[in-house]
Amino acid sequence: MSNITEIAKRANVSRTTVSRVLNHHPYVKHDKREAVFQAMKELHYVPNLNAINLSRGRTNVLGVIVPKISHPFFSSLIEGIGEECHQFDYSLLVYQSNNDPKKELQFFDKLKHQQIDGLILGSSVLPTATVDHFAQYLNVVSCENSNSNILPRVYVNHGHGIQLAIDHLRERGHQKMGLCIGNPQSGVGVTRRESFFHFQELYELNWQEEWYFSEQYTIDHGREIARNLIEQKERPTAMIVGSDQVAAGLYYELANQELRIPEDLAIVGFDNQPIAQITELTTIQQPVKELGKKAVFLLNNLIHKQIVPLSNLFDLQLIARKST
Amino acid sequence: MSNITEIAKRANVSRTTVSRVLNHHPYVKHDKREAVFQAMKELHYVPNLNAINLSRGRTNVLGVIVPKISHPFFSSLIEGIGEECHQFDYSLLVYQSNNDPKKELQFFDKLKHQQIDGLILGSSVLPTATVDHFAQYLNVVSCENSNSNILPRVYVNHGHGIQLAIDHLRERGHQKMGLCIGNPQSGVGVTRRESFFHFQELYELNWQEEWYFSEQYTIDHGREIARNLIEQKERPTAMIVGSDQVAAGLYYELANQELRIPEDLAIVGFDNQPIAQITELTTIQQPVKELGKKAVFLLNNLIHKQIVPLSNLFDLQLIARKST
DNA sequence: TTGAAAGCGCTAACAA
DNA sequence: TTGTTAGCGCTTTCAA
């Protein structure tokens, strides 16, 4: 592996001049520049990024941490982030936390170790205070809302999503609705739950304790919920489900048990994943990739010491299909 | 940000000793070691990875390149890779190629630039010769089969998958089968196609040109195929589809058009994604995460100059459901 | 327009 | 068991 010293020798210039050529610095005479290029070609020169990073004190790498990489929401988020990283010439380090706060903390270490220039929190279970502590001196952007006053975030208004779902169901005459969410600790989970109960009260709906489910992530969870609901003496007439996967499982098991959808039970999902299209699921669509792209945009500004808006809200949309 | 020089001063030792403490080197007296730890604590010392990487000439980062991050197969692959990386204390850089050879080449550059220690090809459209060229002096592992004699790879026998599907269909009396695959250039695509035609001949089945589809990736593609098939005067009685998503779209549109599955058309998918479970799709299951984990294992051995087997085959399994 | 020289923060061969 | 010293490959003042 050749280095700038060798290039400099062969091109009969100083290492500095080679560095200038490398960095497209203006003050280099044409023939010297050519000589350097020639030498680089002959020696198959490849710059060593670690050396550059060490010198410059940055890496051009961003990190993203998500609970589960293969979850459709997060893989789309990563995709959006990845595409925008490519635009800004960042590489992307991906880390899976499994919602384990210890793992999240580990990832912050990478930031501190200067292995990455900035960090995107796909979803975090750390307390606001902890994240804020890091956000004070590190470049962090979150993809969930929070009440921090220093952490920039991009997010959709999940409360509004719940409202869209409830309004839509009420229009169709429903008064008895259940709720099913994933991680109740996460920002998203908290918001959805609070918002759900808020509107239950506001509209004076007949909510019941047994119609609330949390920690539901998979199709099989959805099927369990179906069996659970069927057992209940008084069922809700509609379920709002925080994930299309779970909603699809619910749908599937209900149909298996000969219940009609939406007549016996209406279902609203979240995310508009492919599976929602196939099962004709009414769902709340989120602009996931846009979310990711915006996060990179903000992080890049943060890295360049620019002021970024803390709160960046994206719109949700209800997609009505046959399940309601 | 403090560095080892400051730590050394404060602990009254040399930089070397600090480095030894950092690297758990045995020859350090207990009290000096304690003094160093004390100093590190007081100065909130955090090692600079770039400096370490530069010194050591490696980064402890692996890279993976996939056509599309949000595709269920690849997001599961990344998940498996990520989990194993965590075991071996590697970070993971993720890159999306969109099947663009230029982008793949860019990623090889990162390897050359020593930004990563090794590279996993999730799927590549580069010629074998090109990949081999890199594999000669770089650490590369592929997740597709190839006929290279230097590139280590982990893969499932897609030919066998096709055979499983065809045998299963023949048992159910099918003689007229169509094939639908994704990228026909990729190793997977090539193998599936060749194998399909091989068995068509071997079993003397009535294959027709119009029953072959490629470049099919989405649910909507599947729906198009359904409409296309319906138009045909002589339809196949079964379709083998290289992706559950496409298969689900096919299923969905056929059902919409009042065709019965499997009576009017049987369908076999690939991957056993959640969507296959919901649509009761017979499918070929691949051990995706295990594939990813093995790839990391091999790459780690490669990095440590150990000899690795070139060909690492994983078994496939047919999961019979109601679509056949 | 060019080059010398001093870092960036750490590791590791060598000597003591 | 410890320290000295010379790098790793590049950037960036500063002076010419």
UniProtKB/TrEMBL annotation, chains A, B:
Pfam families tied to this protein: LacI, Peripla_BP_3
Keyword DNA-binding: yes
Assigned keywords, A-Z: DNA-binding, Transcription, Transcription regulation
Domain of life: Bacteria
Domain (HTH lacI-type): residue spans on this chain: 2-56
MF (Gene Ontology): DNA binding
CDD domains per the UniProt record, alphabetical: HTH_LacI, PBP1_CcpB-like
InterPro entries, A to Z: HTH_LacI, LacI/GalR-like_sensor, Lambda_DNA-bd_dom_sf, Peripla_BP_I
Identification of the protein by name: LacI family DNA-binding transcriptional regulator
Lineage per the UniProt record: Bacteria, Bacillati, Bacillota, Bacilli, Bacillales
